[in-house]
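The authors assume throughout that readers already know how a fold can be written as discrete tokens. For illustration, here is how one protein appears when written out as sequence plus structure tokens:
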Amino acid sequence: MADIAESRLQFALNQGFATVVSLMSLSQGQTLEDGLGFARESAAEFCKVGQQTGVETTQKFEGTLECTGVEASAQAVRATRAASKANLVDMGLPVQTLPVAAAIHGEINLVGICRYANAIPRTSISFARQVRLEREYKIYQASSHTD
């Protein structure tokens, strides 16, 4: 889990909602190029789950749920595995730069979600459940096509 607020990361760890956390910087850079470079670096850093698990890897995630609205964090597409989903909950600023080419080439579905009172927990649970069901279906398909 990545966030811009350390208190939310600590809460997620304490409640068992996350096993690995990464505090994101609010630094965005002065130019568009600086901001995009920062976003790429942030996504790469977040994918290094080995920081806290001891396993050196740069795997991407099966699904991402971006809730901060910070433009660099909205680049969650870069941390999302191909043929998966990046959920953008609210957007912060009305105009943001997103890596659409990365989403298209990676066949990543961008899903926009608006925040409503008491909706985020249901949205998060629904998203996690869908990712799990899709993974189980892929395993079923693979095992049902054996010789």
About this structure: The chain has one domain: 2-144. The domain at 2-144 is CATH 3.40.50.720 (Rossmann fold).
